[in-house]
Write a structure and sequence with these properties.
The protein has 112 residues and is α+β, with helices and mostly antiparallel strands. The protein has 2 helices and 8 strands, in the order αββββββαββ.
Length: 112
């Protein structure tokens, strides 16, 4: 991940006027996502509050191309991107792991 990618992610976080989705993380955390289907990319903000017993959860994404592949990058580990099927991200969901309580993360994805 380079500076341009990080700047793009920051801008996407700042301007979430496109389609949005959020879901509760065991009722004690709140991930949110902003998807730009026309650009084939998006950003996910995830939070694990200290009361949340789950260290990982699956979150189905919306607005993706089920026939496309997506590169998913956790900005805490930018050197470890993974490629995932759009259909899998929409049906099974994206696994978000936060082993420590009171943790937050940002994940970006883009169609390849």
């Amino acid at each position: 991940m380079n500076y341009t990618d990080l700047a793009t992610a920051a801008e996407m976080l700042a301007t979430t006027t496109r389609s949005r989705r959020s879901a509760a993380m065991s009722g004690t955390g709140l991930p949110g996502s902003s998807t730009a289907p026309d650009l084939g990319e998006g950003v996910i903000q995830a939070f694990r509050r200290k009361e949340c017993p789950a260290a990982a959860m699956l979150f189905p994404l919306r607005g993706l191309d089920p026939a496309a592949a997506y590169v998913v990058t956790d900005l805490d580990q930018p050197d470890k991107p993974v490629t995932v099927d759009g259909r899998k991200l929409m049906e099974a969901g994206l696994s978000v792991a936060m082993p420590a309580a009171s943790q937050a993360g940002v994940i970006v994805y883009r169609r390849v």
